[in-house]
Amino acid sequence: MCGKFCRFTAAQTERNQMSRLDIPITSFLILFGLACSSGAPDSPPSEMSEPEIRVRQPEGQFEVMEVGDIDINLQIDVFNGSSEEITLKRVGLRSIPTSDIQFASSGRNLDEAIPPGSVRTVDVWVRATNSSSSLSPSMTVRGTAVFVYSGGTFRTIFTESVVESNMQFRPR
């Protein structure tokens, strides 16, 4: 009774549904590609050595550690082992899930020039929750540091177990 018209309508409907699916998928892939290509590269150029980064707490801060919400000062030491000056522009930190001390993502914009062979220390305060009554609760942070140098911008990703220390930074 329908004849060619019903078959045409069914085929046309199927094509229209597929086209509607193609548009969001294509849009997503284009946006994902743009997002991945923008921003700082994940490592310094081959002619530069990657900065060494350590995270520590000032001496005495782990001694009086209460269970519950606490403010923590994290000191980030950055060693520039390259032959060119770099500038630390941003540090972003978050705790990893297995740490006794947890905090949400926290970041700080900076403008810290680090000459070749030098160390700079920056302070970042975080609001955290301590779930351990241990005298030595564990805290491991994952972070991203964004640097600028004469040839552009790069990013370094790091994971560090936080230790209590006032010791001077020594490159590895």
Unreliable stretches covering 5 or more consecutive residues: none
- Tell how many strands the DSSP assignment holds: 9
Radius of gyration: 25 Å
Query: What portion of residues is helical?
Result: 10-25%
Shape: elongated
Strand content: 35-45%
Strand line-up across the major sheet: 4-6-2-1-9
Count of runs of 4 or more consecutive helical residues: 1
How would you characterize this protein structure?
This protein is an alpha+beta fold and 172 residues long. Helix content is 20%, strand content 42%. It has one helix and nine strands, in the order H-E-E-E-E-E-E-E-E-E. The protein has one helix at 4-37; strands at 52-57, 68-79, 86-95, 101-102, 106-114, 119-130, 140-149, 152-161, 163-164. The chain has a five-stranded mixed sheet, with no helix packed on it. A hairpin with a 2-residue loop joins strand 7 and strand 8 (152-161). It is elongated, with a radius of gyration of 25 Å. The mean pLDDT is 77.
Short key terms for the protein model shown above:
20% helix, alpha+beta, four-stranded antiparallel β-sheet, 1 helix, 172 residues
In short:
The protein contains one helix and nine strands; from the N terminus they run H-E-E-E-E-E-E-E-E-E. With 172 residues, the protein is α+β, with helices and mostly antiparallel strands.
